[in-house]
Amino acid sequence: MIRRQRALRTALSASAAGMALLVARPALAQDPPAEGATDAAAATAQDESDENILVTGSRIERAGFEQPTPTTVVGAAEIQQSARVNLQQALNELPQTRNSVSPNQSIANTTSGTAPVELRGLGLSRTLTLVNGRRFIGDNNLNFVPTNLVERVEIVTGGASAAWGSGAVAGVVNIILNDDLEGLSVGAQTSLTSRGDGWRYQFDAAYGTHFADGAGHFMIGAEYVNDEGIGVGGRYDRPWFGAGVVERPDGRFEIQPNVDDLAPISFGGTVLSGPFAGQVFDPDGSLRPAEPRDFFSLFDTLIVGSPLKRLGSYARLSYDLGGTTLWADAAYGRSDVNQPFLPDPAGSVLVFGVAADNPFLTPGIRQQLADSGETSFLVGRLSRDIFTLQFDALRETKEIAFGVDGSFGGSWRYDAHFSHGEVDSRQRFYNSSIPANFLRAIDAVESGGQIVCAVNADADPANNDPACVPLNLFGENAASAGAIDYVTGTQMQDTVSKLDSVAFRVQGDPFTLWAGPVSIAFGAEARWEEQSETIGELDAAGAFGTPIFNDPLEGGFNVKEGFFEALVPLVDSASFDLDLNGAVRYSDYSLSGGIWSWKLGGTARLFDALLLRATRSRDIRAPGIGDLFAVNSINIAPVVDNDREGREGNPGYNPNPLATIFSGGNVDLVPEVARTWTAGASVSPSFLPGFSLSVDYYDISIGRAISTPNTSDITAACAAGDAEACDRVVRDATGTITTVFAVAANIARFKTSGFDFEIAYRMPMSRIADIPGSLRLRALATYVDELVFDSGANVRDTAGDVGDPVANGVPKWRGNFSIAYENDDYTIDARIRYVGGGQFNDELDIVNGDIGARVYFDLGTEFRVRERFTFYARVSNLFDENPPLITTTYSPHYDVVGRTFTVGARVRY
Fold it and tell me: Could you tell me the strand order of the sheet in which 127-131 lies?
């Protein structure tokens, strides 16, 4: 009884419906909250029942179980009211996440249409995502998950491989869907920025009903979103785009706005030599002196935000046979992206020679060239009118699962399931350059009063190309449609990914000790993953100037696993509790063999107010199909030999030779291994009901991390004594490198550590005045002490590097503070989002490289009418806070869009 009463007294409060507030707290076991109920009320309701609930950090279900692993919880209301394009973007507002992929981050990137979550900045593949505690084929793409059906999301912010297997190195994101939906709910929402772009609208509906006197239940729901994105024109309203890092005369660097780094190249073509040097072609083919407006940066040609159409749907049927429940569910998701990518590097940026008698030149220009005795001249042109790649990606997921849950022998429970899922991905790059055709098309001559390709003016029928259409490059949009069709083609790739999974789990209390029952859970899992790709004929022939889809990938693997977990109460008294929690898992991979992962942790509660917790774990990340089976490619390129000692005196030794470089996957890869520490405390004093404070420390070190090193990294690692790296380098008799195998390898090391903080307080307004409703406050923050990437040759700590070119940089500090007033009729809330500053790039001496922190203010309100109708409105980034200057395409840390308005409504029956 002591433990049960304590659970009631220490249930942590969290945000209620109606506020976009991200909730973090120690992981108290809890039942899913009823719609519209506060999390505190839900926790109390759970503790007053005998029903167990699964907490993501553990495979043991037990009421009142306080697990030692820190967990962040995001409620359904918070997700709905965050007004983001998908579930991922709502989760990316957590301080523990790194916003590595979003509609603004996926510009000129094939990640457009995906929505993964990345915890701790350790890479997408080191965060494991689950739906209802099961792996899903979406491969961490939350675009496939309908947010209107999400009941809550539990995020374990530490290693959890012993509980869930491979990939749970940085943590686990477990999406819990509402499987007991009753009634009909229909909603609509639309968003727009204050600059009049970024329009988005969405619709959702869900229905659930019980039948057979409550024994059966059926539910179905779907969500459709159409985000129009933000085009190139959005850059003109956002002056932080288009900056560049410029070297000054004193050798230092400076970030400057509006850097036109492609000058003097222009869109219509700039004459670079001869009597017309410095002049540009207008669309009609005439020349005029160049002006500053003619010059630009490559990034000026890129859009600001990716458009997206997505559909997520889910259905579930369950039937209770009395102690045993049978269930089956099905999911279908679709994401569709069609957007300008970037000008094809192989065809768009051109410096080419033009014959003075080229028939596409105006008669006046040709005459002046003849008068001056010029036979040719150079032109620089960025052909966005011809070679701007258009990326079209359609991804569809289909998944079915069925299983059984039940109990026996009083305290014993079991569950089992099987699932099968597929993702079909269709990717196209239109307007890709075909260099062979381009060279024939620009060699234009006049024959029989017509402009033709020179290859077709030759009388030799063996030396012609009937399809060739001459290409006019003098002035933007001067080229004919036929010529564009001839010099461009479509790169294509179709991919099918499959996942089959089967698992069972048994839990019970086999015996009782002096402090209470010992709970154990054990089970087994197996899964089969495979992927196959096909590419187009032109891709396979290597016809494109910038090949994106080279060799098709095909491969698969399987894994069989067994796990065991135990919860052992050691002390249970009025003033002190002590529990020990341990778990172990053995995984047998078909390619790399067996490996162990484990966790040991404990919790201690003192005087009902102070909870101490700590864990130590060994976690793994097995290589994925791409790591293993990416087809090797061969390239001949210069190599920098960093392993020169003892060789430079050899006659004929070359430290910078041309060498054959093999790159691609590696079937000899083994799983990464991480060592994780977490330690923390939470305080919930009885003299201040509704208040909680928690602090958690984390330390994650990943060894033999999978990375694709460059040749310099490999030779440097060999020089440092890495025998495996030395084995990848082949040398001739002089010691000169002839071949390097730069394939994926277990060569890197990563490390991160820091602190997570939370303060939360909820109080009825009646404590201070005769006012209905309640007041809620919450602050979340994360401090990153280090984020180290060791490639085997280079070591870099990117914590505090916040410039957009730094691939793995994160701010030292991130945090959110929220305050809300809520009563039965309406909610008003405000939020402050803090993103710390730092160095733009600590590897460069930049005179203005200190980046200041940014603070964003959000406001929201919700009105409820007759319990059925809800209307809400939000404004994000109320004061339109500008990000730092951006030198590439985006910033992963700061808001690059600006002030955004959202309105929506929902009706329930």
Answer: 23-25, 71-75, 150-156, 171-177, 127-131, 134-135
pLDDT attached to residue 72: 84
- H or E element in which residue 40 lies: helix 39-47
Domain ranges of the chain: 2-232+306-340+392-429+493-508+530-630+665-708+743-908, 631-664+709-741
What are residue 526's DSSP bridge partners?
A: 502, 560
pLDDT of residue 157: 85
pTM of the full predicted structure?
A: 0.89
DSSP string, 244-268: EEEE-TTS-EEEESS--TTTT-BSS
Measure the CA–CA gap between 635 and 631, rounded to whole angstroms: 13
Q: What's the rounded Cα separation, in Å, for the pair 698 and 721?
A: 31
Distance CA 224, CA 203 (A): 5
Which amino acid is it at 436?
A: A
pLDDT at position 276 over 90: yes
Question: What was the pLDDT predicted at 28?
Answer: 30
Contact 799, 810 (CB under 8 A): yes
Q: How many angstroms from the chain centroid is the CA of residue 528?
A: 24
227 neighbors 311 (Cβ within 8 angstroms): no
Distance of alpha carbon 55 from alpha carbon 603, whole angstroms: 15
- CATH 1.10.10.2840 holds for 2-232+306-340+392-429+493-508+530-630+665-708+743-908: no
A 10 A CB-CB count for 797 gives 18
Q: pLDDT, tens digit, for every residue of 520-562?
A: 999 999 999 999 999 999 999 999 998 888 888 899 999 999 9
Per DSSP, what are the bridge partners of residue 270? 280, 380
Tokens 């020679």 correspond to what residue?
Answer: 353
Tell me the H-state helices in 462-599: 481-487, 537-540
Q: Give, rounded to a whole angstrom, the gap between the first and last alpha carbons of the chain.
A: 40
Distance, in Å, from the CA atom of 639 to the CA atom of 735, rounded to the nearest integer, reads 13
Report the candidate in 83, 77, 71, 79 with the shortest Cα–Cα distance to residue 30.
71
Q: Encoding tokens for residue 459?
A: 């009388």
The Cα angle at residue 576 between residues 571 and 579, in degrees rounded to 5: 40
Residue 356's φ and ψ, nearest 5 degrees, are -65, -20
Q: How many CB atoms lie within 10 A of CB 37?
A: 16
Q: Residue 188: which H helix or E strand, with range?
A: strand 183-193
* Tally of CB atoms within 10 A around 764: 13
Which are the contacts of 546, defined by CB distance < 8 A and separation ≥ 6?
344, 345, 346, 347, 389, 432, 433
Q: Check pLDDT > 70 for residue 353.
A: yes
Beta strands 826-835 and 150-156 are: unpaired
